[in-house]
Each structure stands twice: as C-alpha cells, then as structure tokens.
Amino acid sequence: MRLMGPLSTITRRGAVFGLAAAGLFDRAARAADTETIAFDGLYKSFGVLGFEFSDRVTALRGKEVRITGYMAPPLKPESHFFVLTREPLAICPFCQSDADWPVDIVVVFMKNETAMVSAGRKVIVAGRLEVGSATDAETGFISQIRVTHATFALA
Amino acid sequence: MRASCLLAATLTTSLMGGSAIAQTIYPIDRAEILEGSRFDFKVEFPNAPASADVNVTVNGKPAAEVLGRPTNFIQSEEGQKHSALWLRGASLPAGRYVVEATQGGNKAVVNWDVFATAQPRRAKNVILFIGDGMTVANRTAARILSKGWKEGKYDGELAMDDMSNMALISTSGTDSIVTDSANAAHAYTTGHKSCVNALGVYCAKNALTLDHPKVETIAELVKRKTGMAVGVVTNSEIEDATPASMVAHTRRRSDFNDIVEMFYAVKPDVIMGGGSPNFLSKTTPGSKRTDDQDFIAKFKEAGYTLATSKAEMNAAVSGGSKKLLGLYNTGNIDGAFDLRLAKKGTISKFPDQPDVVEQTKAAIEMLKGNPEGFLLMVESARIDKYSHSLDWERSVFDTIMLDNAVKVAKDFAGDRNDTLIIVVPDHSHPMSIIGTYDDSRPGQLLRDKLGVYSESLPPNYGPLDAEGYPTDVNTSRRLAVVYGSYPDTCDTGRPAMDGERVPAVKGPDGKTNIANEKDCSGPGAARKTGNLPFDANSGVHAADDVILTAMGPGAERFRGHKPNTFVFRVMTEALALGGQ
Q1: Which residues pair with B74 in a beta bridge?
Q2: What is the DSSP letter of B19?
Q3: CB-CB: which of B256, B280, B510 is closest to A7?
Q4: With contacts defined as CB-CB under 8 Å, which chain B residues touch A100?
Q5: What distance in Å separates residue B41's CA from the closest CA in chain A?
Q6: Structural domains in chain A?
Q7: When you count CB atoms within 10 A of the terminal residue's CB, does the N or C end of chain A come out lower?
Q8: CATH number of this structure's domain B15-115, picked from the four choices 2.70.70.10, 3.40.190.10, 1.10.287.3510, 2.60.40.10
Q9: Torsion angle of alpha carbons B201, B202, B207, B210, nearest 10°?
Q10: How many CA atoms lie within 13 A of B366 on its CB side?
C-alpha cells in the first residue's frame, strides 16, 4: 500500500527564487576554498547498525563544501530546509513522515526561507558542512549530516 | 470514490432513523470477539453531552456491571465536539451482547458475538503465510514460470495450491471498499475490521494515533495466555504494516519508532526483516529514531541474538539460539529477482541478505523446540510492492519465493497433524495475464507483439534453477501481464533488468505524476495515459477477493466465502485461545 503524501505546488515565484539562489550560488561556488564532496564519499562504512562518516567528511566539518544531489519533495512549498538525496525520489512510497526518507540523506538549511525548485531536480548545493545528530527546532526533523547557510542552483 | 462514500453514509444514516450524527460504539456492530480477549470499549457521543444526558447498557444492564469494571466518562474529549465513555482492557465471556447507547431521543445499537473456542486444543503450531497483494494472476504466473506448462496442464503444483482446504476471502475495511495492508493484516491478527492505515485499533475520533480504542493481537494473546513461542518474519521493513500487525496498536502505520517499541513490549521470540534504522539511537548516523533509545542493545539485554546477515542468522541457528533479532537491511530486503538474476536494488550494499525461504527455515528451526508449540507469521512483502511498481516479474519471483517457503513449512508439518498452515494474501492488485509478447511477430509496436487466444504461445523462459526460478526471463516470448490501474506510464513489455521499474515520476507542477521517460524510448515501448487520480505515482490495490489455502488441524473450517476476520477465528479456535 502506498499513499500519496502532501506535495508542494511550484509557483513562478519559486522559479524566480531558484534563479536568485543560483546567483548567490555562483558567488559561493567561485570561492576558492570550497571543497566538493559526493554522496559516494560520505561514508566509510554503511551497514545495518549505522554508518561511519568518511575521514574526508569528518575533516571538512565546519568548512565550505559543495555537493550535487536531487531535491526531495519538500515537506512544505516554502521552507528553510530541504532534503538532498543520492537518487531522485521518483517513488516516495509514503511521504508522510521522516520515517520514509532514505537513510543516506543530506539536509540542506538555506540562508533564507526559500521556494524550492521542482522536486526531483538535480541541484548543486554550496554551504557549510555540519556533521552529527541535530534536531531542527521548528520541525523536529533529525539529521546526521547537513549543509547550512546554503545556496543552491540547478545542476 | 468520495461520492460513493457519501452515498453509503447517507444510506446508513437513513436506516438508523434519520439522525444526522449518531453515537458511535467500539467495537462496532457485528464484531466477533474472542472470549477473554482484551478490547477497549468506547462510545462517542456527538455535541459533547454531559454524563447525565447519556446512558449505555449492555444486554439491558449498565455497561460497568456487565464489563465488571467502572467506565470512565469524558465530556468534550480532548476539547473536541464529542463526549466519550471508555473502558480500556475489557473482556467478556462467550455469548451474544446487545450494546445500546442513548443520548436524548437517539439510540445507537450494536451487536457483538463473543465466541468461545472448544477444548482440547487441536493445533500445536500455527504458521500464517501472507503473500502481500498476492493476486490470482500471481499464482498462475508463478505456476507457469516455476512448474512449466504443456498442452493446457501444468507440470507440477505450487506448494500453496496443494492443500486440503480453500476459501475465497474478502478484504474490505470499515471505511472503504479497497483496503491497505495495515488494516487487512490487522483483520487476521485481531479478528476485528478496522480502517485504512490502522493496526490493532478501531478508528475513533482521538487526536493522537496511539490513543484509539485497542484490540488484542494474536501474538499478545499467545504470549499472555500460553507458553507458545512467536515468530514474525518478513522481507519488508519489520515495522511495515503486515509484520507490525502482530504487535502494534496505532491509527497510523507509519509510526515506525513506536512500532519498534511495541515489538519490544510483546517480544516475539524470532523477529526478522529489514528496517534497522528505527532500532538505532538518534545519535547513531543512519538512525531514524527521534529519541536516544537503543533497541539493538535492549533486545540483546533481553536475551536476543542479533543477526545482520544470512551468515549470522545461520550461526545463531546452529548455535542453538531461541531468540533472534535479524535485521538484514536498512530498508526492505531485496526480492528474489534481484537476489538471483538482476543483482540490482541494494545487493551491493547488503551482499549477504537471507531470502524469505532461508528466513522461514531458520525461524522454524529456532521455534520448533518449544514444547508448548509456536505461532509464526511469514510475509512475502514485495509481491505487493513490486505490483505497485507495475513490475510483475519481480512480483511473481517473490510469489515463487513464498511458495518455496510454504514448502519448507509443509516439510516440517509432514504427517505430524499438529500444525495448521494458512497461506493467504491480504488484498489483491488488478493484475491479469492476457497472452504472450512474441518478438518474432511482425510489426513494431508492443501490441503488434502481443499474441492473444490461439496466438498466446507459451513463453520460452530459460531453464529452471534448483529452487524453481527461471534463469532467464528476458527472452523472445514472454508472458503479457497487465495491470488495471496505472499512472501515466510506459510499458516496455520486458523485465526491468536494470532495477525495479519506476512507472511514473513527479511532473513539473510537483503534484501530477507523469510517465518515466526512461521506459518510453526502447523498441516497442507503449505509452499509456493513466487511469488513476493525477497524484498517483504507482498502481493501486483492488477490492477483488483473494484465495486462501490451508491444511492441518482447523483448516477444514475454510470453505466458501469468508470475511478476512474469519482467519483470526480459525487460528484462535485451533489453538483454543478462548476463555477468561
């Protein structure tokens, strides 16, 4: 049984915000000290009993990074964060709670509350890498790895 | 769908005498309740009346007198526009009960049949196999693929077909014609009908998912009243609807973290499936919990051996473990098609996952030593999940896998005559075999390749392996299996060798689902305009009845057409679980 979850409607305003974010992103991306990380390199080990972050990810804590992934269907049309996934979440079996996300997600906290681009689009995110369990005060969403003060652009 | 619900509601209201909103009594009318089993008694009164304005009787006497304990009245429950009368954890001796709830001039009446179970107990063991979403076409296709077909007859029978008794089972819930796996499994494990997304509860007006009126599950009954061992085995996440129905009480099946706690409370002796992240403390990377509880540690402290791979599972069995927590994947365990042929899914991340057959063998090996017998539920979960994806080859491979697991149980039962084996789907999918696709037929389109009636020549799948799976299904003549419900999609008429089919993807508006273009470009791919609501991204369940087969003591009760709640009744009768 799969139930359809609430999904956002993308507005023209969303597209404009996306472009604005792209402008911000260009500046961030040009910064020489931004390191690129990838979903494939996030973990040293990946198992039933949890993950271990790779040495590189651990070393980049607090540093500026960029990462490419897919924007998951947002919980709300406009939000200060979204979930970045390795693969497009074409089928989101339940989409009713954070229990339904894949386990290897990166949570992206934006500089400003932002209208999202179409769910499932490939995006490049730039921002500050944070690692370790944290709970978003507003939504209760728990994440293990985050990019904060972030901007994004379509990939 | 919405219109027909309204129509049904209107009819019910007019039959009940015209009151716009009536009192609601849980358990509902025509409930069949096992004698001595626990249930929460709740009556909801509209318009938030005071206690003095209402009256509730059972067989003409005050409810508290018959139920043996005081009831609790809450005016304007949770600040809502109704009042509630509660008695949690009630139970009754066998008999017929008429419950009346009066509010001013309005009276609501329900009837309960509280049934006894005859002594002596007839079955030592019960094994309940659930083929999630297993439709008749799944069985037929599994037989064609794994047994072979010649001149209109099969070269062998499925283990699940070769059983002494059969019944047609209806699966609807209280709220809708077409139900889901939570409510459907709940009917098997509690004997009560409930609503979509509910497990072990009736769907009342409570705001919180865990507060709804509960009914006892068969695993809880067995643990409370007998010394039997209990096993729950699946290849989905262990918190998913069907396995959860053995232990859970929640209005919302996606309460995975609560469901893990409920597994821990009931403590089935053998627990196997995927879905490990909800067992890990939130501080562990990869956890999906929202608290610090470490259920891996808790189960270990409670005497469970932990297995995270097939090798560890087999080591636990040969080491004599009687309690096992087996978690083999963070999500669902890969299905037989990927484990054996395609090697896609999460095979590279989790290279040593057991399949349902190996899990069943291990579970029976661990449970069979219990002198008081055992209750084992085994689910082949992805028959359903792959049919949602319109990926019939994967769905049918997992049907063959279920059948091989049934064979393991039948070999165990042998001529012991003490083990009731039931094989039943929880609901169906609109799936049918309409012919064969033959690449040698002239024309370019998929429908050119389709042979129907006299031209539906048998498929030329590759030879069977030792476990009865074809070694090649991407051949030139293949079964034409169609689904009756779909979003906008493209049908390739071929198995998806590069991973589970994704029939549709989110469209530019973020809401409507559109065909997954990946499947639209290959030779002969047929574009289909969806027939489902626009927000559907996959196939849906059907209300069509399902086929139950059974053998062993008690199985003779299965005949004709029965509601799904009857499965609970037969299991509890065979185990003589009634009595105060």
Answers
A1: B84
A2: -
A3: B510
A4: 254
A5: 29
A6: 12-154 (2.40.50)
A7: C
A8: 2.60.40.10
A9: -10
A10: 34
pLDDT in tens, B224-280: 999 999 999 999 999 999 999 999 999 999 999 999 999 999 999 999 999 999 999
For residue B484, CA distances in Å to A9, B358, B379, B390, B566 come to: 29, 33, 24, 10, 28
* Residue in A88, A84, A151 with CA at minimum distance from that of residue A120: A88
Query: B112 pairs with which residues across the strands?
Result: B31, B97
pLDDT value at residue A143? 87
pLDDT band for position B566 (cuts 50, 70, 90): very high
B542-560 confidence digits (pLDDT tens)? 999 999 999 999 999 999 9
B489 vs A: CB within 8 A: no
CB B193 within 8 A of CB B207: no
| pTM of the predicted protein model | 0.90
Cis? peptide before B120, omega within 30° of 0: yes
Which pair of structure tokens corresponds to residue B230? 């209990």
Cβ contact (<8 Å) for A48 and B384? no
DSSP chain A: ---PPP-PPP-HHHHHHHHHHHHHHHHHHH-TTPEEE-GGGSEEEEETTEEEE-HHHHHTTTSEEEEEEEEPPPSSSEEEEEEEESS--S--S--SSGGGS-SS-EEEEEEEEEE---TT-EEEEEEEEEEEEEE-TTT--EEEEEEEEEEEEE-
> What dotted CATH number matches B125-430+540-574?
3.40.720.10
Q: List pLDDT tens digits, range B496-546.
A: 999 999 999 878 777 788 999 999 998 899 999 999 999 898 999 999 999
Q: Where are the domains of chain B?
A: 15-115, 125-430+540-574, 432-528
For B543, counting Cβ atoms within 10 Å of its Cβ (0-12 exposed, 13-18 middle, 19+ buried), the class is middle
Q: CB B505 to CB A88 under 8 A? A: yes
Cβ contacts below 8 Å, chain A against chain B, sum to 115
Which of the residues A39, A58, A91 would you substitute to probe the B interface, choosing the one with the greatest number of B C-beta atoms within 10 Å?
A91
Provide the pLDDT confidence category of residue B136 given band limits of 50, 70 and 90. Answer: very high
Alpha helices in B389-520 (DSSP H): 392-413, 446-449
β-bridge pairing A122-135 and A106-115? unpaired
Is B241 within 8 Å of chain A by CB? yes
Report d(CA B49, CA B463) in Å as an integer: 71
